[in-house]
Design brief:
- The protein contains one helix and five strands.
- It has a single domain, classed as 2-Layer Sandwich (Double Stranded RNA Binding Domain).
- The protein is of the alpha+beta class.
- The protein is 28% helix and 20% strand.
Length: 80
């Protein structure tokens, strides 16, 4: 099974929940009560979208990279 890197955009909605979307994988929308829960749901949605493309013989979106790059930046939330 190949590993794919999908960029996510996560924002807090006025209702207090988090919403994840992805320009690199159209159709990916995930919502959770915490950032961690939202990422977990987004991973499942991304996996299903990628599996669907492969199953139907559709090409993966160009922005969905195979494998992780040697370096990348990640922002983390820290409550203090």
């Amino acid at each position: 099974m190949a590993e794919h890197l999908v960029k996510l955009h996560i924002e807090r909605l006025p209702e207090g929940v988090f919403l994840a979307t992805s320009e690199s994988l159209p159709g990916l929308i995930a919502q959770g009560r915490t950032i961690a829960e939202t990422i977990e749901i987004a991973q499942d949605v991304a996996r299903r979208l990628i599996e669907s493309c492969i199953e139907h013989g559709d090409p993966l979106p160009e922005d969905v990279a195979k494998g992780a790059p040697p370096e990348f930046d990640v922002s983390i939330s820290v409550a203090a």
